[in-house]
Amino acid sequence: MVVSIREVAANSNQASGLANQARQQATEGMGVTQDSISAINALAKDIQQAERVMHQLESHNQEIGGIVAVIRGIAEQTNLLALNAAIEAARAGDSGRGFAVVADEVRNLAQRTQESTQEIESIIDRLKGSTDEAVVVMKRSSEQAVESVSRADETGVALNAITESVNAITDINALIAESTEGQVTVFSTLSQNMQSNILQFSQISSMSADQTRDSSVQLGDAVGELQMFVSEYTVSGQTHSKLQAAKYAHLAWKTRIRGFLDGTSTLTQDEVVSHLRCDFGKWYHSADAREYMNIPEMVAIDRPHEELHQAITEVVKLKGQGRREEAESLFRQIDALSSEVASLIEQVEQYLGIAVAPSKSNREVAFTEAVDDVLF
C-alpha cells in the first residue's frame, strides 16, 4: 500500500512538471502573440499613412485637372480669336496677307495646345482611376489589419485562459502530491504500530487462551477500521482527481471551440466524441461511479454533459459546411453548458467532501482507541 501511494505521489509530481512546461510554453506563446500584435499595429499605421498620401494625391490630381481646364479654355478662346483675325485679314486683301499668316500660326498653336490638353486630361483620368483603386485597396488593407489585431487580441485572451487552466492543474497536482506524501508517513507509522501491537498481543495471548481469543476478535475489528480508512481515502482521492480533471477538461472546451471557430486551432474527428466516450463519460457510466448516484447533482450531470458533446459535434459539422453564423450561435450554448457541467461537478465535490470522505484524524482516533482496547 505504501509503495502504491509513493507511486501516486511520483506520478503527481511528474504531472506537475509537465503542467509547468505547458505553462511556460503558453507564456512564450503569449509573448509571440504580443509581438505579432505590435507588428500588425505598426503595419496598420503605415497603411493608414499610405491611404492619407493617396487621398492627397487624388486632391492634387483634381487641382491639376482644374488648371488643365483653364488652359483648354484659353486655347479654345485663342483659336476663335485667330479665326476671327484670319477672316479680317482676308477682308483686307493684300495688305492683310501677312497678318493672315500670323493668325494662321496662332490658330495652329491653339489647336496643338487643345490636343495636348486633351492628352493631359486623359492621363489625369487614368491616374485618378489608379489612385481611386489604390485608395480602395488601402482602405481594405487597413480594415484587414484592424481585424488581424482583433484576432490577435482574442488569441492572447485564449492563451491567457490556457495559462490559468494550466496553473489550476499545477496547483491540483501539487496538492495531490503533498497530500499523498503525507499519507505515506501516516501509513508507514500505522504499519509499524500494527506490527508492534501484533507482537505485543502475541506475548499477551500466551498468558491466557481465553484472553487471546477475545483480543483477536477486537484486533480484527481494529484492522477492519484501518482497511476502511485506507479504502475510503483511496476512493475519495481517485474520485476527487477524476472530478477535478473532468471539470477543467469540460471548461476547456469553451476555449478550444473558440479557437477552432477563429481558425487559430484545429479539431480532429477523434477528439470530438460523444458523452459516453470521453474519459469522464466512461467513468460516469461505469460501476465505479454507481455508488455516487444517490447524489442528486451527480445524476443531474448526465443531461448537460450529453447536450454539451452534441453541441460540440454540431459546431464542428456546421463550420465544415461553411455555416459560420449558426456555429457561432451554438457556441453560446456550449459556453453555458460547460459552465453548468463544471458547476454540478463542484457541487458533487462539496457533497463528497462533507458526506463521503471522513476526516483522517477521526479515523486515526478510532483506530487508536480500538488498538488501546485490545492491548490495555
TrEMBL record:
Keywords: Transducer. It holds the Pfam family CZB. Transmembrane segments: none annotated. One of its GO terms (molecular function) is transmembrane signaling receptor activity. GO terms for cellular component: membrane. It is found in: Membrane. GO terms for biological process: chemotaxis; signal transduction. Its main location: membrane. SMART domains: MA (SM00283). Residues 1-198 form the Methyl-accepting transducer domain. InterPro entries: Chemoreceptor_zinc-bind_dom, Chemotax_Me-accpt_rcpt, MCPsignal_dom. PANTHER family: LYSOZYME-LIKE PROTEIN-RELATED, METHYL-ACCEPTING CHEMOTAXIS PROTEIN MCPB. Belongs to the methyl-accepting chemotaxis (MCP) protein family. This is Methyl-accepting transducer domain-containing protein. It comes from endosymbiont of Escarpia spicata. The lineage of its organism: Bacteria, Pseudomonadati, Pseudomonadota, Gammaproteobacteria, sulfur-oxidizing symbionts.
